[in-house]
């Protein structure tokens, strides 16, 4: 008879303890709204005690009832039979300062809804779900208290769902594929995706944008998203080679499941939600962490004019490295990266079988001498540790390798984990080596261990082939940047090169997670065997502003920078540490314009890029200080520039005086861009 009763009546009956709530009825057990009343979250329970949540924005439901819970290997599942123990709503509003970043000061304003739950039929087993509700999105996580009913949680599957109500278009990279995070970014209706990595960005039919991701990924498996029905997404945990995806003892919290929500794509990038959901800095004074630009012995190997391994064409030799050190010193670059300096590159290193030494250089590379020579020139070597994803071997040498670098004055390391997905070699849960996914719980533990151990020696880390960024740079500011997407080296290989819309996709997908070592600035626009880039020269300059990293590599050969001095001037001038960032406009995969203010000066820098379509984009300069006049140093595509022809080198440099009341019209060629330096006039 309950099938015809309204939900409100069923709720009343349950409250009177005369009847159990029917399975079809949803009872709202907790709700809260964001500080500006923009976003509302409701937590529901059905007649079987199963949990779900919904999200409304400006009164419109955008996430329909979406399941919460877990399947466990060692106990009955945490799904159903829940009753509410208590709920609490609190308000938080603070501002914190980043030691480096896209903006110096970050406001952290949210309303928190805490829902404490109990499974009475499971001896009173407890679980809490905590929501932090911002005006620009929602983060929620599960909290497991220490309890004798569940001393160890062996999580097989997380049942968390994201049920997107309105028809949506999605941009994502597939998960669990061989290239890891270096798949091409795809676009399709949300209902057509399979297994996606995050950030997963969607645009609803009314123009609202949502980015699904996670924050504070610590000692837990990375979350993928699988489409299970229609537009319903369900969490899928990266598998462990040792059994359950996650094994945790005692009290613990999961990573935050995050939804950044905005009117448009530009609003997504302006959100600090993921960063705010991480814990504050645990390292104390981090003045030793140095944002900067660098050059390196790197691109010539991708051009196949030098080798990583020892031999007649070995690129990482003393004489060649000195040339790069001299170039860096002359042009104000702080760092020189050297890849291929250490023994082991001749091994079969790319599939978890690496046999590298991280302390022994090849005979033609004078590590102590070069470190001292660089320091005498005001430059630092940037260390390089390619592990081949043999994490067992790397962890055995890690302390000695870090200690050596610290003794030599090398204060940052680019680490690499080249492998195909599923072939990383970890210390297993039983102590025996096992092969598995780099973003499994074992992989997540290692990547953070590498960073925290490096901090003991005041070393900063730039991780390549990494686990995805989830904002941990707030907690560990020495984790400066990482790769985690297709970088510029794909343009050298050309199989295929990065698509012409790649950067315009990156900004609103991968870059929502954090900084990327993209290695921009290849002014020659040519890879190995004459392979050409899908880019103009102006776009290469714009990428220094558009694709953010606190350490930026000027990736081209020194002789090419000597060949194009006008363009190279912008690369020399542009900083890597910002006081403020503004996304002026943008659409996923089409175009974007970003303005950033120098943290250590009064200048602003602008970068704009487009896809294969030429565009004219308005740039209102209202972010400039009123009452001041600025000199705009403009680097733009020539009138006939086009990435598909030799005209991709057409670059016009010009200057003009502007004020905060002016609007510039940025003309971008097909596949092009524009870079601007705005300097206050005295």
From TrEMBL:
Residues 1-25 form the signal peptide. Coiled coil: none annotated. Residues 33-280 form the Glycosyl-hydrolase 97 N-terminal domain. Keywords: Hydrolase, Signal. The keyword Transferase does not apply. InterPro entries: Aldolase_TIM, GH, GH-type_carb-bd, GH97_C, GH97_catalytic, GH97_N, Glycosyl_hydrolase_97. It holds the Pfam family GH97_N. This is Glycoside hydrolase family 97 protein.
């Amino acid at each position: 008879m309950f099938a015809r009763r309204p939900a409100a009546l069923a709720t009343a009956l349950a409250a009177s303890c005369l009847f159990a709530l029917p399975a079809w009825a949803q009872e709202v057990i907790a709700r809260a709204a964001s500080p500006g009343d923009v976003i509302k979250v409701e937590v529901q329970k059905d007649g079987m005690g199963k949990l779900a949540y919904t999200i409304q924005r400006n009164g419109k439901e955008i996430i329909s009832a979406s399941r919460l819970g877990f399947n466990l290997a060692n106990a009955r599942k945490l799904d159903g039979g829940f009753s509410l123990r208590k709920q609490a709503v609190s308000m938080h509003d603070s501002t914190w300062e980043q030691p480096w970043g896209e903006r110096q000061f970050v406001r952290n304003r949210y309303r928190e809804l805490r829902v404490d739950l109990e499974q009475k039929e499971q001896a009173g087993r407890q679980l809490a779900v905590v929501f932090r509700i911002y005006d620009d999105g929602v983060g929620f996580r599960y909290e497991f208290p220490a309890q004798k009913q569940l001393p160890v949680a062996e999580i097989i599957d997380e049942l968390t769902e994201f049920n997107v109500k309105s028809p949506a278009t999605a941009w994502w990279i597939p998960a669990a594929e061989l290239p890891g995070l270096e798949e091409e970014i795809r676009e399709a209706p949300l209902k057509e995706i399979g297994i996606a990595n995050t950030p997963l960005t969607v645009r609803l039919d009314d123009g609202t944008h949502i980015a699904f991701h996670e924050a504070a990924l610590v000692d837990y498996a990375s979350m993928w998203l699988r489409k299970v029905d229609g537009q319903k997404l369900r969490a899928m945990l990266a598998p462990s080679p040792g059994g359950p995806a996650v094994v945790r003892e005692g009290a613990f919290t999961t990573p935050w499941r995050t939804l950044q929500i905005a009117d448009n794509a530009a609003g997504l990038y302006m959100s600090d939600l993921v960063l705010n959901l991480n814990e504050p800095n645990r390292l104390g004074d981090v003045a030793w962490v140095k944002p900067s630009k660098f050059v390196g012995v790197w691109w010539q190997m991708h051009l196949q004019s030098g080798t990583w391994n020892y031999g007649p064409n070995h690129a990482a030799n003393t004489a060649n490295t000195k040339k790069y050190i001299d170039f860096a010193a002359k042009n104000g670059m702080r760092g020189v990266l050297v890849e291929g300096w250490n023994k082991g590159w001749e091994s079969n290193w790319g599939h978890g079988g690496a046999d590298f030494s991280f302390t022994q250089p090849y005979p033609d590379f004078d590590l102590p001498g070069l470190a001292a020579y660089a320091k005498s020139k005001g430059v630092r070597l940037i260390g390089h540790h390619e592990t081949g994803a043999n994490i067992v071997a790397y962890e055995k040498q890690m302390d000695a390798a870090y200690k050596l670098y610290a003794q030599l004055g090398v204060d940052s390391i680019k680490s690499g984990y080249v492998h195909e997905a599923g072939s990383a070699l970890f210390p297993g849960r039983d102590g025996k080596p096992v092969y598995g996914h780099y973003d499994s719980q074992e992989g997540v533990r290692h990547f953070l261990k590498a960073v925290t151990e490096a901090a003991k020696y005041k070393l900063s880390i730039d991780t390549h082939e990494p686990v995805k960024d989830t904002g941990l740079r707030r907690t560990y500011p020495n984790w400066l940047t990482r790769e985690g997407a297709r970088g510029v080296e794909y343009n050298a290989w050309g199989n295929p090169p990065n698509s012409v819309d790649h950067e315009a996709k990156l900004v609103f997908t991968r870059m929502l997670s954090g900084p990327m070592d993209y290695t921009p600035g290849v002014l020659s626009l040519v890879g190995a065997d004459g392979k050409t880039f899908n880019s103009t020269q102006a776009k290469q300059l714009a990428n220094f502003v558009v694709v953010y990293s606190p350490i930026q590599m000027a990736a081209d050969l020194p002789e090419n920078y000597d060949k194009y001095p006008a363009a190279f001037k912008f690369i020399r001038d542009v900083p890597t540490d910002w006081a403020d960032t503004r996304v002026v406009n943008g659409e996923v995969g089409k175009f974007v314009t970003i303005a950033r203010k120098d943290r250590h000066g009064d200048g602003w820098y602008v970068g704009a890029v487009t896809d294969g379509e030429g565009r004219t984009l308005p740039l209102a300069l209202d972010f400039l200080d009123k009452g001041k006049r600025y000199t705009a140093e403009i680097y733009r595509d020539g009138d006939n520039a086009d990435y598909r022809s030799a005209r991709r080198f057409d670059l016009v440099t010009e200057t003009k005086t502007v004020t905060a009341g002016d609007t510039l019209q940025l003309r971008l060629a097909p596949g092009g861009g524009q870079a601007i330096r705005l300097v206050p006039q005295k």
